[in-house]
Amino acid sequence: MCMKKLELYIHIPFCIKKCNYCDFLSAPAGEQEQTEYVKSLQKRIRSYGALMKAYHVVSIFVGGGTPSLLKAEQTELIFEALYDSFQVDEDAEVTTEMNPGTVTKEKLLMYKKLGINRLSIGLQSANDEELRRLGRIHTREEFLSTYRMARKTGFGNINIDLMSAIPGQTLESYEQSLSFAAELEPEHISAYSLIIEEGTPFYERYGGGSHAEELPSEDTERKMYARTKEILETYGYHRYEISNYAKNGFECLHNLGYWNRTEYIGIGRGAASFVNHRRWTEGSEPVVLTRQEEIEEFMFLGLRKMEGVSRVGFCKTFSEPMEVFYRDVIAKLKMQKLLAESEDRLYLTDRGIDVSNYVMSEFLF
Amino acid sequence: MAGTELSRIRNFCIIAHIDHGKSTLADRIIEMTGLLTSREMQSQVLDNMELERERGITIKSQAVRIVYRAKNGEEYIFNLIDTPGHVDFNYEVSRSLAACDGAILVVDAAQGVEAQTLANVYLALDHDLDVMPVINKVDLPSADPERVIEEIEDVIGIEASDAPLISAKTGQNVEEVLEQIIKKIPAPTGDADAPLQALIFDSVYDSYKGVIVFCRMVEGTVKKGTSIRMMATGATAEVVEVGYFGAGQFVACEELSAGMVGYLTASLKNVKDTRVGDTITDAVRPCKEPLPGYKKVNPMVYCGMYPADGAKYPDLRDALEKLQLNDASLQFEPETSVALGFGFRCGFLGLLHLEIIQERLEREYNLDLVTTAPSVIYKIHKTNGEVIDLTNPSNLPDPSEIDYMEEPMVKAEIMVTSEFIGAIMDLCQERRGIYQGMEYIEETRAVLRYHLPLNEIIYDFFDALKSRSRGYASFDYEILGYQQSELVKLDILINKEEVDALSFIVFAGNAYERGRKMCEKLKDEIPRHLFEIPIQAAVGSKIIARETVKAMRKDVLAKCYGGDISRKRKLLEKQKEGKKRMRQVGSVEIPQQAFMSVLKLDDK
């Protein structure tokens, strides 16, 4: 039994309406287009079958867009193809993303039947005014009914997505959203800070530094980040990755896989894959990583995790100690109090998390 | 060539204000005399360098020989000498003019006489050239040739009633220009048997032929094998080849004799030996005295040039050496800056010359450069009686050793329409100008005369002039001399450390304002660091302005979409790449851009 671990990502690029901050590959689409897309997904999934015999699948993640927009039967077709083509572990973590108001009881039951055992629901904010600004399609109440329906259907592993630094958001309203989510006792909470991305309506409005007064100040934003950890800890969550919090044993395996450099295949428009030292996105040629790039990735990806990177792990992977490559960098970052060390592991300090891009870029050669 | 009678030769140049159509007329003349067909013509034949065409200016002197069959049936040889069109190259212009017997003055039929027109005409008259006016662009709707003719007669004082009214663009009436050249421009004089006396008006370096000397034969004859001597530099050599200027090519011939314009090559390796303005004579049978007017041109403006990538230092040195082969007025010597590493202090004739060299280094030699603020040469009179020419602000002696300082002044003429007189006077006032007078050249236009410190016009004076006059003001200047002035050295401290490359000399009364602007500009240019960075301007130990770059609070990538690691990598690489282009000063990383941005401290 020397089969290798594999993760699967399925991309569903459809949504009811694009949110104001969203730069993901997603757009509203007609029924015809969705049907055809599902068909081509099936084909693509099956085309991998024979090639991936040496792998067993430890997690599946259906992301978007809004995957819950697909009809129950369409989701079924996708999963049929998946189970036919890949060897999926009995206890694999199988997640689908969904937005409030896009699922029915029947759809949820189908999800259960298909082996989906984890739901990720986009709440973003518990404040209706903030939701409106974000261009979300739902209210706080609509979220609640979807969440309750999911629980009632028997889903025992649910994630809630939250967002900080929303235009008009105050520290108080953010804390209220946090408590609102935590009191529902989901197993997992993702709390991201809003980034104004190019090509979005938000970029139009805030891109050039205009209307800056509507955005929470940098100081407020950092307070929001600090408060996230404090508040969620009181509810029994711990931070295991820069933006992710979970109750013990409910860390998202799929997410951690990216940072641990587990191999994965992404299927669907624009999805990224990483197999056998190669990275590619759908429709483009695989690029073989150099040893140097792999070393860099090991560091900058690993540091996303709160536990950081393991010296022993590094040595096992590359047959040379970390010090050979990074002695000076590590010394400098430790002096700047951005990195800390305990026993085998090297990890970001709180200040290091604040400026993690800087820290990570230091590990590029 | 041999046997051409002097009466059939005309040596002339074309002078004009920028954009009045000098190069276009030259092109048309070349085309109409059949030297090139219009299909072969690349627009503006005489501007060889890519840069010249792009900027629409002439940097190096050029010459071309044209054969014209006149209406009277005779064949004439025209030597057209194109002169640089900018005040930085005034000396080169004067030598080119000295090689001519007459000048065609091109004036735009709509814009009329401009500052450069005047300056160029005076220069031509100084050299006893017969000036023949031509009114160009008569095909433009706004053309008003009557008014312009009147203006030429009133302002310049030369007869213009029979000036050809032409459009160099369409070729309209250009024939008339050619006919008038024969009538109005005198034939050269000189004795082919007299001792050799020839004026060098330019020289270029060719990797095969060595130095090619452009010369105007005044007396005597030169041919292959003649032993020549440069009377000012003393260099001697044996002539290898003589010839004249075809269109864009050198055409060898038997000999050059008095009255002709041509080139010669000899075993000369360096243009430094063949200074513009020097006299060539026969080493065996020398002429009695050199031609008048030679002077060694000295740089007026200095700045530090550093390779963006320190490892490119030898490349920069090689490139400067190569450029110097063709440009004797470019000077450079190695210098070291704490902030910028190893580089060169380079001397230029003016700001345009500086920009041209900088652009050529970047384009032709593919070098990424960081330049420091341009500086003029200050004369430092020390208390011990010593006088220093200061070209690098960092070398300013301790104030206690300085008795007083002097700075170079220029005499400026600004031509402007009356509605902008106030705005331009304000500008000159702000730049410490001393009003010398004003004359109306017509009801709506006037010439303002000012004495201005050179260091006030080497930054952005020209830009400011244009923006405050909506592009209507024109400007020309010449060096006046030195004048005592209250000057101080302004230092910039970043995170309490002095950055030598940002120091400059400034008039004491402007120090506060300049310091404040520098700090503001740098604040925008320096990225946030993990710590707070004070930016201070200081004169001596006194801080006169301060800004702060706040500490970086946050720099996190939120979500990683569907395992798209390459996107994350790109972001990190961009960050890292940005840092590579920074200069480390103490613990602060300063973008190279910052060193350049302080050169443009615009008011707006």
Write a short abstract of this structure.
Chain A is of the alpha/beta class.
Please provide a written account of the structure.
The complex is a heterodimer of chains A (365) and B (604). Chain A is 41% helix and 22% strand. Chain A has helices at residues 31-48, 72-85, 105-113, 128-134, 140-152, 171-183, 201-206, 218-234, 253-259, 291-302, 311-318, 323-335, 350-354, 356-361; strands at 4-12, 55-64, 88-98, 118-124, 158-164, 188-193, 238-241, 244-246, 263-267, 272-275, 278-281, 287-288, 309-310, 339-342, 345-348. The longest helix of chain A is centred in the first third of the chain and has 18 residues, at 31-48. The two termini of chain A are 37 Å apart. In chain B, strands 6-7-13-10-9-14 form a six-stranded antiparallel beta barrel. In chain B, a hairpin with a 2-residue loop joins strand 31 and strand 32. The longest helix of chain B is centred in the last third of the chain and has 16 residues, at 565-580. The radius of gyration of chain B is 27 Å and the shape is globular. The A-B interface holds A 7, 9, 11, 24, 63, 192-195, 218-219, 221-222, 225, 242-243, 258, 264, 266, 270-274, 279, 281, 287, 293, 296-297, 300-301, 304, 336, 338, 353-358, 360-362, 364 and B 530, 552-566, 568-569, 571-573, 575-576, 579.
How many angstroms does the end-to-end distance of chain B come to?
Answer: 60 Å
Whole-number radius of gyration of chain A? 21 Å
Per DSSP, what share of the residues of chain B sits in E-state strands of 2 or more residues? 25-35%
Decide which structural class fits the backbone of chain B: alpha+beta
Number of helices of chain A: 14
CA radius of gyration of chain B: 27 Å
> Which CATH C-level class of the largest domain in chain A is it?
Alpha Beta
Global shape of chain A = globular
Our estimate of the beta-strand percent of chain A is 15-25%
Total beta strand runs of chain B: 32
Cross-sheet strand order for the largest sheet of chain B: 6-7-13-10-9-14
Strand arrangement, major sheet of chain A: 7-8-6-5-4-3-2-1-9
Chain pair with largest interface: A-B, 45 and 24 residues
Overall residue-averaged pLDDT value of chain A: 93
| First-last Cα distance of chain A | 37 Å
- Count of helical stretches of chain B: 14
Count of distinct strands of chain A: 15
pLDDT < 50 runs, ≥5 residues of chain A? none
Report the average pLDDT across residues of chain B. Answer: 85
Supply the number of structural domains of chain A: 2
